[in-house]
Design a protein that fits this description.
The protein is mainly α. The chain contains ten helices and three strands; from the N terminus they run ααααβββαααααα.
């Protein structure tokens, strides 16, 4: 078998096993993405980057799933990819992004095109949009801060083996991880009252 075919076969095998490289963004790029974003784009980017929610989960997300007083997003089975309930902490910086945008009820994103429009916004700013960068960045930085495979596994809805291989073993810079979860709007609105997030 030619070298190129062997390489392609090896890559396909690794991807099937979940061992392909993952894409993360540095905090500076996330800041640039969020700067001057429309409400829809800012909401999409902030939720994806600070919760690790999958695209399909974001599109099924309702405002009724947010418990701001408890500081968590409670995902029912109908929302998650695995069909298992999941609870994700609302990080304090995410709360600042949600404060001016949160509603009492309804879908968080009224249109399935919200994702496409957000990607178009990023491309207009000439910022690369690697596949699943927000989920991968969340997992990597969250694992770096918590140092808990089990906790990140529960928050992301992944197996512990996937979390360890993809995120825990990435050895991200702790300074970057802390900075990631410290990104807030330039002019924060009044923050929704909530208990401290984990």
């Amino acid at each position: 078998m030619p070298q190129s075919e062997r390489t392609a076969a090896d890559m396909a095998k690794r991807e099937k096993l979940g061992e392909s490289d993952i894409a993360t963004l540095p905090p500076s790029t996330l800041r640039t993405l969020l700067k001057d974003a429309s409400d829809e784009a800012a909401l999409w980017i902030a939720l994806a980057a600070f919760t690790g929610l999958r695209t399909a989960e974001l599109l099924r997300l309702h405002w009724s799933h947010f418990d701001f007083k408890a500081g968590v997003i409670r995902l029912p089975r109908q929302v998650t990819k695995t069909g298992a309930k999941r609870q994700i902490p609302i990080q304090p910086n995410l709360c600042a992004w949600l404060a001016p945008l949160a509603k009492d009820a309804g879908l968080v994103f009224a249109s399935e095109k919200a994702h496409d429009r957000t990607i178009a916004y990023a491309k207009a700013k000439e910022i690369e949009w690697p596949s699943n960068w927000a989920r991968h960045s969340f997992g990597t930085y969250r694992a770096t801060i918590t140092k808990s495979i089990g906790l990140v596994s529960l928050e992301m809805g992944n197996s512990e083996s996937i979390v360890k291989r993809h995120y825990f073993d990435q050895h991200a810079n702790e300074k970057d991880a802390l900075e990631w979860f410290a990104i807030v709007p330039d002019k924060p609105a009044n923050i929704v009252p909530m208990k401290g997030a984990a």
